[in-house]
Amino acid sequence: MSALGGCGESEDAPTPIEAARAELAQGDGAVARIYLDRALDSGENRRNLAVMMGEAALLEEDFAAAREWLGPGEFSPESAAVGFRLLGRLEMAQGNLPAAGAAFDRSHRLAPEDAELWVDIARLRYQGGEHVQAIAAVDRALAFEPAHAEALRFRGQLVRDAHGMEAGAIWLRQALDRWPDELEIRLDLAATLADAGHARRALAVLREAGGAAVDHPRGLFVQAVIAARGGELGVARDLLARSGLQQEAHPAAQMLGAILDLDHGNLASATLAFDRLYARQPDNSRIRDLFAYALARSGAERELVHRFAAVAQGGTGSPYLRLLVGRAFEALDDRARAASYLDRATAAETGLAVLPVRSPSAQFAMGDLGDGIALRDFVRHAIAIGDTSEAVRRARSFAARVPGSGDASAILGDAELAHGDRAAARAAYARSARVRQSWPLIVRRLRAEEDAANARAILTRYLAANPLRADAALALAEALALEGEWERAAALLDHALELGAARNPAALAGRSIAARELGEAQIAFDYALAAHELQPMNPLAIGALLATLPADDAGTRAELEAKLASLRAR
Predict the structure, then answer these.
(1) At which residues are the TPR repeats (predicted)?
(2) Is residue 512 part of a domain?
(3) Which domain holds residue 339?
(4) What is the sign, positive or negative, of the torsion defined by CA atoms of 295, 300, 306, 311?
(5) Ranges in the chain, pLDDT < 70
(6) Do residues 169 and 161 make contact, with C-beta atoms less than 8 angstroms apart?
(7) 285: CB partners within 8 A, 6+ apart
């Protein structure tokens, strides 16, 4: 025992500062602070410890302590560049973007070719809406250090936003191949592969390198999503609970939890969760429609029409939302209003959808449009009241002020399209798409497009990059059907039905038409019947069923023809 005790202070033992540096490299701020406190107690100069103390506090998200050490900017000469970079991270974490920029500028003057700094600058620019400049900054980081792990990861995320899941997965795979022990890259790649429809590959990525990612909260969430998509809902609930992300108010986890609650019959819990999510993301049509569905399942028809009747009548109301509102009015015995919503549920929408405005009208009158959200709401308001010239003027001014913002370009595209300048709208949307291609942006690009071949190319590229988008598959199937490519259209419709479009009567009716064109009479009849049973007053479903009825079923044919004529006469 005495011999072992004598080894405790050997010459090979690391100093407290060396031990702290090793813990920081492992991401353990708490243990690092213990060693740094020892160094401080032994008389080490505060300036020599300021950067490591600040980094340890940032790792623990102890922003007050981080500011105590980093805020004064009193660093040793050799650590000053890192110190100001960490100060910039602190300012970013607390939403002080101009102060973050100033700190990064000071770091840049001391270390202009630091790849780590350029990644931080890229994140700052992205957070500030300078999306194009953010891409340039991360490319600058990779120019200085081509194998920089965080630069590769962020570039992969940017590629994923702009070019879809498949392209993003390629970048993240390259990053992981270089840095197989980087857990965050592994988790990003697994999530991206799962969203690209490669569930087995995603699970394999989680299990590699010892399987540390399998039990990580994000890893458990990815597995929960995969299980839910595969119909293993009990497994998905267990994995989601183990992740703890739902309790931490992670939006995607809350969304999955609410969907699982719906399936399990926990309607009160699901409705409350969708209500909270909708309050935070009122433009998210999927959350809105699921919230309305939860209200309908709960028998809360009055709440449903109170919340969504106006939205359903507007340009952003989906056919499914109108169907739910219409059925709610039926349940309330208001058949006249029910009919207006059910009729619109079967009608195709064209033109630009005017999204709901939440900014006070007084703000518009005062012209206080300093941020992107206020400007977006102003443009929506101007479009709604028909003042498209003012919408274009304001949107152009904003886009000129922040030329690297994909959001500003999207807003400008909306204004130009509403004003009737499709060429200008296409150009603005294309600039926005170089940063982020969401499905709502694709829908707007299609509305602005005048060339069918271009529209089809846009859809084809988007679906190839995002293969789990049922709405994109349906849209491309329709484009192919118009050109008589029925085999490809049928394959895409089957894909969409597998992804959840089986509750869409238009998708079922379209599949019936494709089957009929391919000479598959019984399959055509089965799909038409399913569409009609789902929504008996849908003209597409009625037409598909009429086209597939046996020739000797004159009574049913006459009944369907009378119903279709009645609908057309409204």
Answers:
(1) 115-148
(2) yes
(3) 299-345
(4) positive
(5) 1-12, 315-316, 345-372, 567-570
(6) no
(7) 316, 318, 440
